[in-house]
Amino acid sequence: MHSYRTIEEIDDTVETLYEIQKSKFITHLRHVDNEEDAREFITAIKKRYFDARHNCSAYVLGEKADKQKSNDDGEPGGTAGNPILEAIKKNGLTNIVVVVTRYFGGIKLGAGGLIRAYSHAAALGIEAATTLEMTPFAQLDVAVSYEHLATIEHYLRQNEIRSLDADYAEGVTLHLLIPPAETEKISEDITNLTAGRAQIKNGDEQLIAIRI
User: Distances from the Cα of 35 to the Cαs of 32, 71, 110, in angstroms?
Assistant: First the structure.
């Protein structure tokens, strides 16, 4: 399981506007998990801005960012889709699709100007989104008596250890989320704090979204 960066999944899309030489560059982006969702988003933006001259796009998918595609949508080759893709890669993001819509203002920007404009427009959109670090955590289920609960909760606060909702019955079962490399140390600490009375069970690893 690998850590990776993506953007927050929200109901609406992120939208930004950049103007240069009377041309308008409108950027939309969204979190997507597969190529079908990416293509559907691109199609939806094209339908929404059907009167625009260009709707250029790029997306990156997969935990290893190994699925990448860009489209110049009529702009000179390499001046639109690739700069958008490079903006995504520069920010180390995956599972994201970006579409930059251009309304031509009547003044030609030239190849270099187009590359800079699409790159900047994409960067503005990415900057406006909330970035998440998808980080592997191992779940540690810790069953303790109420006698030791305050001690363990104090230890968790001191060490900034994340946890899911606890189960309360005759005793308490805490569901801790631990960086995999730290599970052994934290298990030992909890064992020592409870004089060996805690029942500790290792759970599965999972990816947790952390805002950055």
Answer: 8, 14, 31
Contact 66, 4 (CB under 8 A): no
Rounded Cα gap, residues 177 and 142, in angstroms: 11
Taking residues 67-78, report their average pLDDT. Answer: 97
φ/ψ of 75, rounded to 5, equals -70, 160
> What domains can you pick out in the chain, each with its CATH number?
4-129 (3.30.230.30), 135-211 (3.30.70.240)
Contact 174, 144 (CB under 8 A): yes
If we measure between CA atoms, which residue out of 29, 60, 54, 41 comes closest to residue 117? 54
pTM of the model: 0.86
Q: Which two tokens stand for residue 116?
A: 């800079």
